[in-house]
Amino acid sequence: MRLQLDLPDGKLAAIAGVQTFGDYLVFHPHLHILSASGLFDQTGTFHLLPAASTKSLEALTELFRHRFIQTLVDHKLLTENKARDLLNWKHSGFNLDAGEKPVAADDVDGRRQLAEYLLRAPFSLQKITWNEKTATDDQAGDLRPQAVGERAMRDHTKLRAFELADQLALTTYKATASFPREERFGLTSQLRRASVSIASNIVEGCARFTESEYIRFLEMSYGSARELEYQIGLSHRLGFLDANSHNEILQLATETAKVLNGLLRALRN
After folding, report:
1. Distance (Å, rounded) from C-alpha 114 to C-alpha 22?
2. Given this model, what pLDDT does residue 233 score?
3. Which residues pair with 11 in a beta bridge?
4. Are 131 and 137 a contacting pair, CB within 8 Å?
5. Which ranges of 123-242 would DSSP assign to H, the alpha helix?
6. How many CA atoms, within 13 angstroms, populate the side-chain half-sphere of residue 203?
7. What is the β-pairing status of strands 136-137 and 130-131?
8. How distant, in Å, are the alpha carbons of 189, 242, 245 from that of 186?
9. Residue 198 in contact with residue 167, Cβ under 8 Å?
10. What is the pLDDT of residue 50?
11. Which residues contact 245 (CB under 8 A, 6 or more apart)?
């Protein structure tokens, strides 16, 4: 652009916002950059690119992609191997949302579309859209963080692992109610403790501030699920659980452990 506008010291005008799309498992962090199609000179005067120049925006996007990735490598935020992988992707991840046609100053719809993307709240699955009738942001109550400067909370109730663990605890408590009295401080207590520990550790992990702590509590939850699997089998072999109860709890415990294991694998990768 500096060459085309004959402005060797021209300054680019751009706004960048870090956005996500998904949840805490796959939150897909990325940048939205709103850039002016021109440059500012030393006096603050804006110079618009000629209309013919805007037709080569795809080429500029590709150039930006290579330089951006190289900058990450130079700052040791990305390895050379990973950079090569990214540059070989069929879908680069660097897209022009406005298409080949820049958004003009009087293009109200185009500006609104860009604003909806830039205003998306952290860990949002949806864009915030403007409601003309109520003059408010739709879903604002659901999408905005709880307070300015406050970190977004993980919601354990939205995790499939917690849903299974909660059901497992309820089922285990009901099934152990008929255990022999002498097992009150034995298998009855151990089964109930293990089953409650699975769900409790998920809840506590979600409340922790760092991902490493989150993972640590999920690991404890996974360990309790595997422990419960053994205790269920032992209770069945001792005659404390009938075949139906044994199969129901074991299936729940196995499924819970499987989902937790998948969640842990995704977080570690």
Report:
1. 19
2. 93
3. 40
4. yes
5. 140-143, 160-176, 187-207, 211-237
6. 10
7. antiparallel
8. 6, 18, 19
9. no
10. 75
11. 175
Say how far apart CA 177 and CA 188 lie, in whole Å. 8
For residue 96, the 8-state DSSP code is -
Token pair, residue 12, equals 């680019």
What are 100's two structure tokens?
């080949």
The model's pTM is 0.45
Query: 9-45: per-residue pLDDT in tens?
Result: 999 888 777 666 544 444 556 676 777 778 899 898 9
Name, in order, each residue with C-beta under 8 angstroms of 151's C-beta and a sequence gap of 6 or more. Answer: 145, 209
**CA dihedral angle for residue 95, residue 98, residue 101, residue 102, rounded to 10 degrees:** -100
Contact status, residue 70 vs residue 50, Cβ threshold 8 Å: no
Considering only CA atoms, which of 254, 250, 221, 258 is closest in space to residue 234?
A: 250
Contact between 264 and 221 (Cβ < 8 Å): no
DSSP state of 24: S
Cβ atoms of 127 and 117 closer than 8 Å: yes
182-186 LR contacts (CB < 8 Å, sep 24+): 183/240
Domains of the chain by residue range: 2-118, 156-268
What single DSSP character describes residue 180? -
Determine which helix (DSSP H) or strand (DSSP E) holds 137, and give its type and residue range: strand 136-137
What angle, 0 to 180 degrees and rounded to 10, lies between the N-to-C axes of helices 243-268 and 211-237? 160
Reported confidence tier of residue 57, pLDDT bands at 50, 70, 90:
low
pLDDT 10s digits, 136-183: 444 433 333 333 333 456 788 888 899 999 999 999 999 999 999 899
Report the C-alpha gap between 124 and 128 in whole angstroms. Answer: 9
Phi and psi at residue 40, to the nearest 5° = -100, 140
- Tokens at 245, concatenated: 């109860």
The CATH number of 156-268 is: 1.20.1440.60
